[in-house]
Write a structure and sequence with these properties.
By secondary structure, this protein is mainly alpha-helical. It has 3 domains: 69 residues; 54 residues, no CATH class; 64 residues, no CATH class. It contains 11 helices and 2 strands; from the N terminus they run αααββαααααααα. It has a two-stranded antiparallel ribbon with strand order 1-2. Strand 1 and strand 2 form a beta hairpin. The longest helix has 20 residues. The radius of gyration is 25 Å and the shape is elongated. The chain starts with a helix and ends in a 6-residue tail after the last helix.
Length: 206
């Protein structure tokens, strides 16, 4: 009887390995199916049984039962394989995947994995791979407002100053000042006084 249970477990583990290697977003819940099999239910059962050795073996495969999701290393390996094999994929697409799947897990990745991604990225795109999270539009607006009201950095209280005053924010603000559509797409977050100030400084406010 135990032999039959062991054989069945090995079949499920083989199916799990196939799912992980194919890039599936494996989940330990009753709704998840792979190849029309209730793989999610099997994983839920394993978690309840709490077999330390089996859970550890599964984690080595790239799935952390305790977190009910794939491990950061597994996400990174999938990303690396895509970099190496999908040569026609757009850079913007691969950049988005990096931002969403790899960058948020940087602290859980090994130095070897980070080095491997940096090396492959450099070879493919001839540029260094940045691990700094890009600012969202809201982040930039908040930084811009902080700059406007910062007496030390901005003694003239202007929305647009030179590069030495604004740093990297300068380029984003410069584009806003020269693009009517962009500045008006975010103008709703400014009060009436701020709108008048922007208009007086030459921003194309409608």
């Amino acid at each position: 009887m135990n032999s039959k249970k062991t054989d069945a477990t090995q079949v499920w583990l083989a199916l799990l390995s196939e799912a992980i290697n194919s890039g599936e977003d494996v989940k330990a819940n009753h709704r998840y199916r792979f190849k029309d099999k209730n793989l999610g239910t099997f994983l839920v059962g394993l978690k309840k049984k709490n077999n330390p050795k089996l859970i550890a073996d599964i984690k080595k495969m790239g799935f952390d039962l305790n977190k009910t999701s794939r491990t950061p290393e597994n996400f990174a390996e999938k990303f690396i394989q895509k970099l190496l094999t999908e040569l026609k994929i757009k850079k913007t697409t691969i950049q988005t995947e990096f931002n969403n799947s790899v960058l948020p897990r940087k602290e859980q990745l090994s130095e070897d994995t980070i080095h491997k991604i940096n090396k492959i990225w450099k070879e493919r795109y001839n540029e260094d791979r940045s691990w700094t999270k890009a600012l969202t539009t809201i982040d930039k607006i908040l930084k811009w407002k902080e700059f406007r009201y910062d007496k030390k950095r901005n003694p003239n209280r202007k929305w647009h100053q030179g590069l030495s005053y604004m740093g990297d924010l300068y380029y984003w603000v410069y584009k806003l000042k020269n693009n009517e559509e962009k500045i008006n797409s975010i103008i709703g977050v400014f009060n009436e006084k701020e709108k008048r100030e922007l208009k007086s400084e030459g921003f194309p406010i409608r």
